[in-house]
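Subject: Cox cluster protein structure
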Amino acid sequence: MGDHSAHGTGSATTSPWPLLVALGLVFSEVGIVVALLPVAVAGLVLFAASVTGFLTESARVARPWPLAIGFGIVFVVFGGLLYALGTGTLSVAPADELTGLARRGIAIAVAGVITAVGAVALRARSRRNRKSDRGGRHG
């Protein structure tokens, strides 16, 4: 078998996003399984931000804000569903035997709120910076 990798002389840069995506998944899983709410929330926020950054850097999305806000909304909806199942507000037979759903739902919903609010805040700051850059130029 031969080595089919490219050996160019150009300077290739390595993206940090795949590592951050993996770390986000690990932290969120550990936090949810071990019942460490702050670790779970931080892991989910890191995961959402990293996937958004990765897709933006690779030009799969033009702007990161809608995707990040979308992640937040999905997290809130899914977390709310888990919370409803865990508290018995919503009853589904296969979920009746599962424990800890309410706690997991809270972690996921909180991560969703932080992700969405953070994306909106960063979007507003980005717009404000662009306006000040345009307004500050006197050509």
